Structures are given as structure tokens and as C-alpha cells.
Amino acid sequence: MTCWQQHLIEVLAGLTGGSIGFVGEMEGFRSKRPKHLSQAEWGWSCESDRAGYFAGFADYVRNPESYETERVCRRWFLVEDGISLSRTQLFDDRRWEATKEFQDIFRPLGARNALWCNRSIPGAAGDFSLGIHLMRAGRPRDFNARERAVVYETQAALAPLVGGPLAQVCDPSPAALPPQARRVLQCLLEGDGDKQIAARMKLSRYTVNQYMKVVFRHFRVRSRAELMARWIRRGWSVRSIP
């Protein structure tokens, strides 16, 4: 989970009157093989409610096609990427109350209405999307057109930024680099040139150059300037290198 996702769901819940909210990245939603890569959550009034929800959610992760909202939402999203949908747009009361998700997840929480919004991440290499899910507990009114529009417009503005200015969960981490490559990365970010890095690390310039190639490949950049730009966009610091 990334910090911007946590901030996003807190703000959206406040703007729309959502009692409980989730946002996260998903892979394989459109190909019927959804894999949840990250999830920020907000709004729990007690830990028992949270535990009960995630017990049901674990079953959904294992058997997504057994949940009607999964199938219905996918059909809508394949037609209009990013559409923001409320429960009453998808199900009348009788049909909704018969679903597995209402009986196993919503009903125990006292939640009757919900909003779903899923949008592909532009430029992502594969079936990656950003999903937003809000629930309204203890209130009979469903999410209205204005509230759906708030989520839709927010999603439309943010999805193109994921993997760029906004960190993506699959972004390469400095922690995955070998120790010597991390040290070279630190020197690069502190402004050292090849000769200075070699002197600091007591390595040949050839060896330093090989480590630099490892760093560039890892972060999918081709130059120091591009590396620095990526680092600044993420809001990282040199101290964040493990």
C-alpha cells in the first residue's frame, strides 16, 4: 500500500458520505483472474467488524466468480472504463439481498449500499487497474449522481499518474538491490561522479560503472537525470535507502 492511496480513500469517504472505503491496485480484473496488489482502507468503527469483513473478503479473493458484483461490474467496466456505479444501478433490493456478498459481507456490517469504480492504469504493461470501493452503513440512501461523479472524476484524474508522479505498488524498491549497488545508488543521489564513487567505495571505475548499470536497469531509467527525476517524483530521500 502507498501513502497516497490511504489519503485518497479518506478524502473520498468524507466527500461522499461513505462509512467504509477501500482503494487499491488490481491485476487481471478484465481477464477474470483478479489479483489484489494493494489495498488502503478507512472507516472501521471496531476491530470485530474489520475482521468479519476480511473473512468474507478472503473468500472473494479465492472465488471471485462466485460473487455477482464481480461479474456484473466487469461487464459494465468493459463497456465504459472507469464508470462509477452505485448498488441501486446494478441490483434492485430483492436481487441484492439474495447475493452472496450481501449475505456474507454487507449484512453483518449493517451496510446496504455501495459504490464501485475501476479504471485501467494507462501505460501499464498488462491488465492493471485502480479500484475504489465505498460502503454506506446504517443509512438507507444509496450514493447519488453527484457522489458518483466525484469518484469518477477523481479516478479519471489520478489513474494516468499511477506509475509516474504517483507510486505504483509494483515500482522497483531500493531494498531489492544488492548491497554494493545500493551504496552506488546513494553516492549517485548525493551527486558523486564515477571517479568520486570509485574513491569512496575503493572500487575501480569499471566496477562502479557495472553497478550503475544494475541500478539503472532496476529503476528502468537510462541516465542519472532520469533516475533523479523518478526519485524526486516519489518523494523519497537518500535516507530511505536501506
Give a verbal description of the structure:
It is elongated and about 75 Å long. The chain is built from eleven helices and six strands. Helix 2 (47-62) runs antiparallel to helix 6 (100-109) and helix 9 (194-201) packs across helix 10. Strands 1, 2, 3, 4, 5 and 6 form a six-stranded antiparallel sheet that branches. By secondary structure, it is of the alpha+beta class. It starts with a helix and ends in an 8-residue tail after the last helix. The chain has helices at 3-16, 47-62, 68-79, 87-90, 93-97, 100-109, 145-158, 179-189, 194-201, 205-219, 224-234; strands at residues 20-27, 35-36, 40-42, 84-86, 111-120, 128-137.
Provide keyphrases for this structure.
242 residues; alpha+beta; elongated
What's the quick description here?
The chain is an alpha+beta fold and 242 residues long. It contains eleven helices and six strands.
SSE layout and pairings?
Blueprint: H1 3-16, E1 20-27, E2 35-36, E3 40-42, H2 47-62, H3 68-79, E4 84-86, H4 87-90, H5 93-97, H6 100-109, E5 111-120, E6 128-137, H7 145-158, H8 179-189, H9 194-201, H10 205-219, H11 224-234
Antiparallel strand pairs: 1-2, 1-3, 1-6, 4-5, 5-6
Helix pairs in contact: 2-6, 8-10, 9-10
